[in-house]
Task: structure prediction
Amino acid sequence: MSYGVKGRALRSAACAAILAAFGAPVLADEIFYVSGAVGKAVENFGALVKPWEEATGHKVTLVPMPASTSDQFGQYRLWLAAGATDIDLYQTDVIWAPQLANHFVDLTEAAKDLAPTHFPSIIESQTVDGKLVALPIFTDAPALYYRKDLLEKHGKSVPKTWAELTETAQAIQDAERAEGKADLWGFVWQGNAYEGLTCDALEWVKSFGGGQIVEPDGSISINNENAIKALETAKGWVGTISPDGVLAYQEEEARGLWQTGNAVFMRNWPYAYGLGNGDDSAVKGLFDVAPLPSGTDGGPSAATLGGWNVAVSKYSTHQEAAISLALYLAGPEAQKARALSESNLPTIVALYDDPDIAAQQPIIPRWKDVFLQAVPRPSAPTKGKYNEVSSKFWSAVHNTLSGSGSAAENLELLAVELEDIKGAGWQ
Ligand code: GLC
Result:
């Protein structure tokens, strides 16, 4: 990668306001932003950063990464450990802050006016030992996507429990297949062995009253009867209401099947809402979203808290421009653009009252309470060990789903492994 220092003229007088906020450089920088993406995020990135490029004269190049957050994390950790100067900004998952904090610039001072406009809990999730490690660009909490037309046709209501979902999915799948829809499946989700499975499985476990793997006080809680019940329930879906291939699905594979009209239900994040209503979607106008089902009648529904942020590398040689871009991407203009074009949930409080967002992406105001009550993965209590904890968890779950050991056996073993990782205490 090379850095061309280009003098770029300010292109538009309409950008004066941005200019006032972000400052005009004497020389333009070419900066590199690394990010994984789902949906159309890569395609839309150019339009998203254009106003900032026009105002500042800088140029941003997106370095696209694989969609899997686990794959991104592995690569970023290598680059950061090597002190790579090639990358100026990293788009970071909500769970990474404690593990990567040492490699990022403290944005507290730069964001002193912007940060108070965000939800305090989200700013808090990116604050490690008093240092603001990354600025939030969107938050995430999943939904149960369901086909309104199919539920109506078969006289079913939106399931409130996983048992109801199982029954409804099977009934509609059977009836539709009998009518010749051979490719229709009841329920698609993320069963691949990666961070996404940690999210899905945490939702099953939590909604059955089985805790949060590792509790906020650091205790390991995963080996319990309710967690076992939750995983056995999910195992029952594989090959019945979900294709065997679900064990290799990430977000995009689930959306692919759903968006061609071949699923009754899907578990996915809000980004799939706008895409599902796109002109090229077979389910445009035919679906709606609901909170994920509960494990027990009248029990809690659980949504895993997700979300993405932007961090400035300590090793960047263009820090001023990089910080300016981080502020822009976390600011109201870019967050609104992202909400409209990608149905991502903003982290700025006021955008939940924005009439354009409510009209174009109605899931957003509806999902405010869902993400505010979402369950965090145990990245805060397990500190630098979160990735190890999560990968042990998703492996135990994946083994269970694929029939390699029972849930009881796998969770018992997992608890031993986690105690081992914890050692004398999480650090
Ligand atoms: C979504 C979430 C992120 C999570 C990932 C798992 O991108 O925002 O937090 O880790 O899905 O696949």
The domain at 7-140+305-374 is CATH 3.40.190.10 (D-Maltodextrin-Binding Protein; domain 2).
